[in-house]
């Protein structure tokens, strides 16, 4: 773990000086995990890819301000969430104008497709309504499939705090989903 940390620190220092190869190496080490988070948040591959590209650009622009108090992944993850939240606010403004547009469904029956997408959307909306401290633990636990210990290390918290936040997050999710039915 110490070797990985030293390598990451070295790559960050080089990237801060403008070394694009070092920056590319940093991104490639986290890209798959960040894409999974983006896909969970967006629900569509293309939209997740767009979110990821926007995140990479924002990371590059913000890199000089990266202090190293967290891991590069945690820093990147936070930027991705912030961009996603900004996009959602913009989308809410545009929604009334887009209501008439139909979206192609997959090879499921119309009823099955509708139910499946409706459920996904309810879960996404419920996760989006959670405070960020609960969103983080839900995504890290269920998307990243990290253990309580790993989540605690990544967020710099105690394992008991992680368990408590997950319990509260699941409770809030249940309430949100039940209200949306």
UniProtKB/TrEMBL annotation:
<feature type="domain" description="RNA polymerase sigma-70 region 2">
    <location>
        <begin position="31"/>
        <end position="92"/>
    </location>
</feature>
<feature type="domain" description="RNA polymerase sigma factor 70 region 4 type 2">
    <location>
        <begin position="120"/>
        <end position="173"/>
    </location>
</feature>
<dbReference type="GO" id="GO:0006352">
    <property type="term" value="P:DNA-templated transcription initiation"/>
</dbReference>
<dbReference type="GO" id="GO:0003677">
    <property type="term" value="F:DNA binding"/>
</dbReference>
<dbReference type="InterPro" id="IPR013325">
    <property type="entry name" value="RNA_pol_sigma_r2"/>
</dbReference>
<dbReference type="InterPro" id="IPR013249">
    <property type="entry name" value="RNA_pol_sigma70_r4_t2"/>
</dbReference>
<dbReference type="Pfam" id="PF04542">
    <property type="entry name" value="Sigma70_r2"/>
</dbReference>
<protein>
    <recommendedName>
        <fullName>RNA polymerase sigma factor</fullName>
    </recommendedName>
</protein>
<dbReference type="InterPro" id="IPR013324">
    <property type="entry name" value="RNA_pol_sigma_r3/r4-like"/>
</dbReference>
<dbReference type="InterPro" id="IPR039425">
    <property type="entry name" value="RNA_pol_sigma-70-like"/>
</dbReference>
<keyword id="KW-0238">DNA-binding</keyword>
<comment type="similarity">
    <text>Belongs to the sigma-70 factor family. ECF subfamily.</text>
</comment>
<dbReference type="InterPro" id="IPR036388">
    <property type="entry name" value="WH-like_DNA-bd_sf"/>
</dbReference>
<dbReference type="InterPro" id="IPR014284">
    <property type="entry name" value="RNA_pol_sigma-70_dom"/>
</dbReference>
<dbReference type="InterPro" id="IPR007627">
    <property type="entry name" value="RNA_pol_sigma70_r2"/>
</dbReference>
<dbReference type="Pfam" id="PF08281">
    <property type="entry name" value="Sigma70_r4_2"/>
</dbReference>
<keyword id="KW-0804">Transcription</keyword>
<dbReference type="GO" id="GO:0016987">
    <property type="term" value="F:sigma factor activity"/>
</dbReference>
<keyword id="KW-0805">Transcription regulation</keyword>
<keyword id="KW-0731">Sigma factor</keyword>
């Amino acid at each position: 773990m110490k070797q990985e940390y030293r390598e990451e620190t070295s790559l960050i220092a080089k990237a801060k000086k403008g070394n694009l190869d070092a920056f590319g190496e940093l991104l490639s080490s986290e890209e798959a995990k960040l894409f999974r988070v983006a896909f969970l948040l967006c629900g569509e591959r293309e939209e997740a890819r767009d979110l990821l590209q926007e995140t990479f650009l924002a990371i590059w622009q913000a890199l000089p301000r990266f202090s190293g108090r967290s891991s590069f992944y945690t820093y990147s993850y936070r930027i991705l969430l912030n961009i996603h939240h900004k996009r959602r606010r913009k989308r809410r403004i545009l929604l009334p104008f887009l209501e008439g547009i139909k979206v192609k469904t997959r090879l499921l029956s119309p009823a099955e497709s509708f139910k499946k997408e409706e459920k996904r959307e309810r879960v996404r909306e419920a996760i989006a309504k959670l405070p960020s401290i609960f969103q983080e633990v839900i995504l890290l636990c269920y998307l990243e499939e990290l253990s309580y210990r790993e989540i605690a290390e990544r967020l710099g918290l105690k394992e008991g705090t992680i368990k408590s936040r997950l319990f509260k997050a699941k409770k809030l999710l249940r309430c949100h989903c039940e209200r949306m039915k």
